[in-house]
């Protein structure tokens, strides 16, 4: 691709970051150039974000129906899986799976709830109420 043909389609990420692309300059030598985005990638990212939003809503519904604990909601909201949450919280994976059960979650000590809250960068009361405050 020639340097002047690098796509510059502005996406929501284009305001935050740019992608490094390799291209050829006027003399045919390889060089690098920054791209704000590419329409094909923008559409793919939009599809992915829609899927994430659906997963967050599904997790919220499961918590409201008392089929899961708020940990599931925040795992989806923070784009975490059990492995990542285990690394951030210090809990074993089997413990997190157990804490995903509402009955077990409701019996967790404040110390354990504080570990989860810290992993999700929220307060304990926000964890319990599924309140999201983006500052």
Structural write-up:
By secondary structure, the protein is mainly alpha-helical. It has two domains: 3-37, no CATH class; 44-128, Orthogonal Bundle (434 Repressor (Amino-terminal Domain)). 52% of the residues lie in helices and 9% in strands. It contains seven helices and two strands; from the N terminus they run ββααααααα. It has helices at residues 39-64, 70-77, 82-89, 93-99, 102-105, 110-120, 124-129; strands at residues 19-24, 30-35. It has a two-stranded antiparallel sheet. Strand 1 (19-24) and strand 2 (30-35) form a beta hairpin. The longest helix is centred in the middle third of the chain and has 26 residues, at 39-64. The model has no long low-confidence stretch (mean pLDDT 90).
For the termini, the CA-CA separation is 41 Å
- Secondary-structure content class: mainly alpha
Order of helices and strands: EEHHHHHHH
Radius of gyration of CA atoms, rounded to a whole number: 21 Å
Low-confidence stretches: none
CATH topology of the largest domain: 434 Repressor (Amino-terminal Domain)
**How many structural domains are formed by the residues?**
2
CATH architecture of the largest domain: Orthogonal Bundle
The mean pLDDT is 90
Sheet-strand content, in percent, reads 5-15%
| Helix content class | 40-55%
Level-1 CATH class name of the largest domain:
Mainly Alpha
**Can you list the strand order of the major beta sheet?**
1-2
Number of helices: 7
Count of strand segments: 2
Largest sheet: 2 strands, antiparallel
Query: What is the chains' assembly state?
Result: single chain
Shape: elongated
